[in-house]
Amino acid sequence: MKSTAERTSHPSAKRRGSVLILVLVVVVMLALAAANFSNLMTTELDAVYSSGRDVETRALVDSGAEYAAYLLEHRTEPGLENLQHNPQLFHGIVVAPSEQPLNRGRFTILAPLEQDPQSRQVRYGLMDESSKLNVNLVDKLIADETEARLTLMGLPGMTEQIADAILDWIDADDNVRANGAEVETYESKNPAYSAKNGPIDTLEELLLVDGITPELLFGEDANRNGLLDANENDGDVSLPLDNSDGVLQLGWSAFLSVNSREVNLRYDGRTKIDLNSGLLTDVYDQLEEEFGEDAAKFVIAYRISGPKDLPPEKDTSGTAASSTTAGTAQKQQQQALTGLVTALAGAVSQGTGTVTRGGIDISKGGQNKIKSIWDLIGSRADVTMNGTKSTLTSPWEADGGALQGLLPQLMDAMSTTPDPYLEGRININQARREILVGLPGMTAQMVESIVAAQSVDGSGDLTLRRSTTGWLFVDQLVDIWGMRALDPYITARGDVYRAQIIGFFDGGGPVSRVEIMIDGTQRPPRISQFRDLSNLGRGYPRPMFQPQ
After folding, report:
1. Averaged over 243-257, what is the pLDDT?
2. Residue 156: pLDDT band by 50, 70, 90 thresholds?
3. What SS3 state is found at 238?
4. CA–CA separation, 498 and 514 (whole Å)
5. Domain extent for 313
6. DSSP conformation letters of 401-443
7. Contacts 24+ apart (CB under 8 A), 176-183
8. Would 510 be classed as within a structural domain?
9. Number of domains the chain is built from
10. pLDDT for position 17
11. Is 325 contained in some domain?
12. Domain final residue, candidates 395, 415, 435
């Protein structure tokens, strides 16, 4: 009989041991392969899930864009809406309801709080492009070359050379301003190019203007959120390069626009009464029907003889921009219009004898142009009525209490131009200090008072009382003569808006962020720009855009 040692050393026994080891190796390898495959599939599933969530958050911001356009299409009278700061309307709007936070999708529309010097706060609402200076309209809105330059000089880092270069770039001629740049400057560059000599299409085009750099145009706000982030206040430790002074240096893109515009129609879409129409019969008849005989007589008297009261001597000390030469330009324009209006009126009345309304002979037409509805408030005008010389007093007294409820009606019904759009006026409810200081007739004291009054909270104070620029007068920040000087340059509501929209799920995950431009001067409103900012990060801490 063989011993135990002899049996275990038999070749067949060795082969059985080798097979066992081989099987174990194969099993281990298969297990590892299965584990790797499982991990790979899990990773792929996570990637597919993440990609799907990206698509879903993008759909959420698309919903936010359509939502904002819908709000503009169905705008009500200003006293009934608040698009500037309205958390109920813009904060955490549910698009995909779910009991599970992971599947509850929302969007938030928010903006930096313009009046926050620390650049830390946000508001929930839209950004009115009329709160910015329309760079294409500076030289058209303000005819005087010196005042046009001063309007730009309020921007941080602006110089007289760059201001004149901008004005030379957008004007239609090749004449070089005192400190400007025209064709010779740009042809000497490498590569050479020509001056635009016309309106620019995008703000980025300003980088072609002599002296303008990306730092001036975009500032330190690398992720376009309007807030001071840690990397924007750490010097050269991380991009963007900054001066680490605790203040967000905004670029000119925060102050300039090429899109601001208002519709010159009533809130219900009807045509306004054109106070400067050459047909005084139409002006009288429309005013009499809507505001009564006394109002119609007074406006016609004003058009014929102008105001009886002259403005007080102007004290330009403390003004942010002098408006002396602007008055001269307006006077020259008035004189040119007088002949045209007289000719039109004569043509209308030719062969028909004297034309009268309310006992006033209007055959010769209106010799005076109304520059602002504020010209008619609290003023007087001489007129010959039924053969007797009289002085008529405006039916609209310069009393803040009485005007507060009346101004929205007056501003809605009347206009000083038949143009379908009003362009370039500044929305004083949102405009930053840097824009206000450059407006003709604006004093330093006015600027500080307006900025201090631009409070944003949930009280609703921004609606009815701020629906017209009249709150400056009602709150005694600007007197009647100041309102008459400022009115051609200011408004309380534009019709082109910018919105920054964040799409997200309550349970976390990817976040999408876009910036859109909505042109509300069209019906239906058109989304004219759509810029995906997601590659710049979500921009805001989650507590700012997700309801708690």
Report:
1. 91
2. very high
3. coil
4. 11
5. 273-415
6. HHHHHHHHHHHHHEES---SEE-S-EETTT--HHHHTTSTT-B
7. 177/145, 177/149, 181/209, 181/210, 181/211
8. no
9. 2
10. 67
11. yes
12. 415
Range with the poorest average pLDDT among 68-82, 164-178, 195-209 = 68-82
291 token code pair: 């505001």
| Residue 369 included in any domain | yes
The per-residue pLDDT for 401 is 86
Question: Between β-strands 273-274 and 414-415, what pairing exists: parallel, antiparallel or unpaired?
Answer: parallel
What does DSSP assign to residue 91?
S
Give which of 397, 377, 329 is closest to 481, Cα–Cα.
377
Angstrom distance (rounded) from CA 68 to CA 109: 9
Question: Is residue 121 classed as helix, strand or coil in its secondary structure?
Answer: coil
Has residue 29 been placed in a domain? yes
Q: How much of the chain exceeds pLDDT 90, in percent?
A: 62
The pLDDT, as a whole number, for residue 347 is 47
Domain termination residue (choose one: 385, 415, 445): 415
Residue 474 pLDDT exceeds 50 = yes
Q: Check residue 159 and give left, alpha or beta (phi > 0: left; psi -120 to 50: alpha).
A: beta
* pLDDT: which is higher, 352 or 146: 146
Residue whose tokens read 């859109």? 516
What backbone torsions phi and psi does residue 134 show, to the nearest 5 degrees?
A: -80, 105
Give the rounded distance of the alpha carbon of 412 from its chain centre: 21
Q: What are phi and psi of 480, to 5 degrees?
A: -65, -35
Asked whether the beta carbons of 168 and 182 are under 8 A apart, the reply is yes
Query: How far, in Å, CA of 479 to CA of 377, rounded?
Result: 12
Q: How far apart are CA 438 and CA 426, in angstroms?
A: 11
Query: Which residues on neighbouring strands pair with residue 485, listed in sequence order?
Result: none
What letter would DSSP give residue 272? P
Give me the pLDDT at residue 250, please.
92
- Calculate mean pLDDT across residues 411-432: 94
Band of residue 75 on the pLDDT scale cut at 50, 70, 90: confident
